[in-house]
Design goal:
Elements lengths: L6 H13 L7 H23 L8 E6 L7 H14 L4 E5 L10 E2 L6 H4 L1 H10 L3 E3 L3 H8 L5 E5 L11 E7 L26 E5 L13 E13 L10 E6 L4 H11 L2 E7 L8 H8 L5 E3 L1 H7 L10 E9 L3 H10 L2
Parallel strand pairs: 1-5, 1-6, 2-4, 2-5, 6-7, 7-8, 9-10, 9-11, 11-12
Antiparallel strand pairs: 3-4, 8-12
């Protein structure tokens, strides 16, 4: 069965759509949220009790919602900005979608199926060491061999590692219905934002207000152009089929529209989906050229025929003036 149309995939997408609607979620989801909250509090206490100081200064980039806040492009921007100031950043990530069991340096020949799609994308985009592995305390010990500052991807809830700067990304569109998983998109209650050093609102549009005492910075990544990963020489299309396996595909569709693309059709796969030759055959049969995210490219390009264009949305970051300076102040502070 196509994962796009599997019962579990359809149910998950139906529940996620409820998160962003201004209506009370079903009572069973609310009940499960209370159970989730209890386990989450216990897990956070256990993580905090095992807190360790890593061998290098650490910047955590995380979120309070379930995916779709722009962490990966923000980490790429941050790593590039750090390198421009003479730092040697090392990125730690879980390696979701990969098969690694122990922390490993993502080498140039390590496929996304092993490293994970986000880890492979980070290694390709940042040109700096990326260590993938679920045990990020162990990964931090490895990091000191490769650089002088750690960037911890998806680290807000990973409290086992102390950090100089705790950055939380919040979608500009807001926090949905403000409820905990699975009744809403929140991984933690809103009160958890109080432990963040910097709150960064990501994405286009007028930010929805969030009640917090911290200053909220603005950052977004716009599509600058569509790049043919197969280098066929075909002109950039304006009408495309949007294909993605990411947490919030609607954001990709909106970004394509803002870039001026007309979306002929779209195909949505589960987050971290491993594309198959069968998937590729299905996509090649679509009438419009295929446009994908950079995260999808690391998995689709090895399977794609060399003579057919595959359009990857390349992004350009735009940060509010002073944001990177604020990060550096936390990094160099006591």
């Amino acid at each position: 069965m196509n994962p796009m149309h599997s019962p579990s995939g359809l149910l998950a997408r139906r529940i996620e759509r409820l998160w962003w609607q201004n209506i009370p979620p079903p009572l069973p989801l609310q009940a499960i949220s209370h159970i989730y909250a209890w386990f989450s509090r216990r897990d956070q206490r256990r993580r905090l009790a095992r807190r360790q100081t890593p061998p290098l200064p650490l910047i955590s980039v995380g979120n309070i919602t379930a995916g779709g806040s722009g962490k990966t492009p923000f980490v790429i921007w941050l790593a590039d900005a750090l390198k421009s100031r003479g730092y040697q950043p090392v990125i730690l990530c879980r390696g979701d979608g990969g098969s690694l069991r122990t922390p490993s340096l993502v080498g140039a020949d390590m496929p996304a199926q092993t490293a994970g799609d986000e880890a492979r994308m980070l290694a390709d985009a940042c040109a700096c060491p990326v260590i993938a592995g679920r045990d990020r305390v162990a990964a931090a010990a490895v990091a000191q061999q490769y650089g002088n500052v750690i960037v911890l991807d998806d680290g807000f809830q990973y409290r086992q590692l102390a950090r100089q700067c705790d950055i939380v990304l919040v979608p500009a569109t807001g926090l949905g219905n403000g409820r905990l998983i699975p009744a809403g998109p929140l991984r933690e209650p809103l009160a958890a934002l109080s432990r963040a050093d910097l709150i960064v609102r990501t994405g286009a549009g007028t930010p929805m207000p969030i009640a917090t005492e911290q200053r909220q910075w603005q950052w977004q990544a716009r599509i600058s152009h569509l790049e043919d990963a197969m280098h066929t020489g075909t002109p950039e299309p304006r009408q495309v089929a949007a294909v993605s396996a990411i947490a919030r595909p609607q954001r990709f569709h909106d970004d394509l529209s803002r870039h001026g693309c007309v979306i002929d059709t779209f195909r949505v796969f589960p987050d971290h989906h491993r594309y198959s030759h069968r998937d590729v055959a299905h996509l090649l049969a679509l009438p419009a050229p295929i446009a994908i995210t950079a995260k999808d490219a690391v998995k689709l390009v090895p399977l794609w025929p060399r003579d057919r264009p595959l359009w990857v949305a390349r992004q350009q970051a735009e940060a509010e003036p002073g944001l990177f300076k604020a990060i550096l102040e936390r990094l160099s502070g006591p």
